[in-house]
Amino acid sequence: MGKESGKGFVVWFTGLPASGKSTLAESTARALREAGRRVEVLDGDEVRTHLCKGLGFTREGRDTNIRRIGFVAHLLARNGIVAIAAAISPYRAIRDENRALIGDFVEVFVECPLEECKRRDPKGLYKKALAGELPQFTGVSDPYEPPLMPEVVVRTAVETVEQSTARILGAIRAKGYVG
Amino acid sequence: MGKESGKGFVVWFTGLPASGKSTLAESTARALREAGRRVEVLDGDEVRTHLCKGLGFTREGRDTNIRRIGFVAHLLARNGIVAIAAAISPYRAIRDENRALIGDFVEVFVECPLEECKRRDPKGLYKKALAGELPQFTGVSDPYEPPLMPEVVVRTAVETVEQSTARILGAIRAKGYVG
After folding, report:
1. CATH assignment at residue B106
2. How far is CA B159 from CA A117, A163, B111, B155, B171, in A?
3. Does ipTM come in above 0.85?
């Protein structure tokens, strides 16, 4: 199983709701598995269910959620696994805290104009937020702080999934994590 | 790195406070690393800090803590890592829930008479509990439910660490997880 060996690292997807994080996390996971790596995708919503039940969407609740994803990603990465996190993770300080903890960290800013995210709205959440039914919804009633120096920015309104995935893999290769 | 490959599994240490769980978790981890496996030790106290801050020691708080350790152990094991959990985990139902989730599960009952645990009391917690200062302390003011069919029982009042570790490794081998 020599193909499966290698250094663990974390790919962290951040961006507005409906910007395309989960889609790109999955396409990136698929490509890395094809390259022989063990990959675990930590999806913000799923992790909330298992590790953060009861935490709200206040600043403190969000920070705790993102720190926990970071801790689990850290445990996986230091055991040689590629951990891929897909979570809005709106606050820069906590993302940077995770970067410092983990070390081997590839931050992907999934950039998509708010208008396009609202148009997509696969879960109907923007609609609810705009109607005032979700008091703390990122991009509408809660802030989003874009990364200042992410390893890669993908623009999902103008790139295909294949193009974005290729650019993400390029950034991972540039850091020497895969051949 | 062929030596590092292999199927992931979980070794779950349960027992009273001061029964010897952490010591045996570490000695087992050392032996498995020497056998070429990747091993992560999830210690109950450490996990509480990172994943369960603010959870109390009520039945519900404890159950959530143990479920979270189980979830993280599950993520590690399904990626080929040996996850070793050392946590009082007093309630049988939640340990069995984790066993069902994880599948590849070796339960180690660290058996030690309460009187001997009280005598050891490395953190002085029994003393506090007996003085009425810790209202929910397992073994004194909170219940402990021993496993009915653990893979192995070690008796730390009468066995050396080496003897107990050898028996734990025997149980792991008997399940075919290491050669």
Report:
1. 3.40.50.300
2. 63, 61, 10, 6, 16
3. yes
Q: In this complex, which of B5, B68, B81 lies closest to A50 when CB atoms are compared?
A: B68
Per-residue pLDDT of chain B (179 residues; tens, 9 = 90+): 334 468 999 999 999 999 999 999 999 999 999 999 999 999 887 788 888 777 778 888 889 999 999 999 999 999 999 999 999 999 999 999 999 999 999 999 999 999 999 999 999 999 999 999 998 999 999 999 999 999 999 999 999 999 999 999 999 999 999 98
Domains: count for chain B: 1
What are the chain B neighbours of A50 within 8 Å (beta carbons)? Answer: 67-68, 71
Does A2 fall in a domain?
Answer: no
**Chain B partners within 8 Å of A81 (Cβ):** 76, 79, 81
Contact B80 A40 (CB under 8 A): no
Which of B43-63 are b and which e, b meaning 16 or more Cβ less than 10 Å from the residue's Cβ?
bbeebbebbbeebebeeeebb
A141 is catalytic: no
Structure tokens at A10: 């974390």
Q: Is residue A1 part of a domain?
A: no
Q: Is the pTM of this model over 0.90?
A: yes
Find the CB nearest A2 among B1, B40, B76.
B1
- What beta strand segments (E) does chain B contain? 9-14, 39-43, 82-86, 105-111, 152-155
Range of the domain at B12: 7-174
Interchain CB distance below 8 Å, A2 and B4: no
